[in-house]
Specification:
CATH architecture: Alpha-Beta Complex
Radius of gyration: 15 Å
Order of helices and strands: HEEEEEEEHH
CATH superfamily: Peptide deformylase
Number of domains: 1
Structural class: alpha+beta
Shape: globular
Oligomer: single chain
Mean pLDDT: 94
């Protein structure tokens, strides 16, 4: 199992809306395998395709013993109830900021056979579903922070060794 290199904040692929998967072939299967392998290490909850440099709508998750993936996911339901929950990102390492997320989320998409898949989550899984779907829309959790917190987060990120510079 070779881990794909992660992309970090500043890399344009992370701010670009991903294309839907339209071909379900060996390449798609390899991408899903890479995403599932990439979410296995301890401390990882989810991994979206753009985080490994692929502009397709696919993510994997591994939260509280529930592991899986969704191709072409769309959030179809969010609870009205929200909470502020500490959030981090593999593409923005070492930084954690409280982020407002819906307590419950439902995502629909398909699997490798192009069959419908629905994933429902509460609390941390709901956060993960929202976070990973955001990645596919070119949104980082930093974009959801209040203005002053976002300014501080961006300042901290730009000072890190991993920050992607052209």
């Amino acid at each position: 199992m070779a881990m794909r290199e992660l992309r970090y904040f500043g890399d344009p692929v992370l701010k670009t809306r991903c294309d839907p998967v339209i071909t379900f072939d060996k390449k798609t299967e390899a991408l899903v395998t890479d995403l599932l392998d990439g979410v296995k290490p301890s401390g990882r909850a989810g991994l979206a395709a753009p985080q490994i440099g692929v502009g397709l709508r696919v993510f994997s998750y591994d939260v509280e013993g529930l592991t899986g993936y969704v191709i072409n996911p769309e959030i179809v339901e969010l609870s009205e109830a929200t909470h502020e929950i500490d959030e981090a990102c593999l593409s923005v390492p070492e930084l954690w900021f409280p982020t407002t997320r819906a307590v419950r989320a439902v995502v629909r998409g398909v699997d490798l056979r192009n069959e419908p898949v629905t994933v429902e989550g509460q609390d941390v899984l709901a956060q993960c579903l929202q976070h990973e779907t955001d990645h596919l829309d070119g949104i980082l959790y930093l974009d959801r922070l209040p203005k002053d917190t976002k300014r501080e987060a961006l300042k901290q990120a730009r000072g890190k060794d991993w920050f992607w510079r052209r």
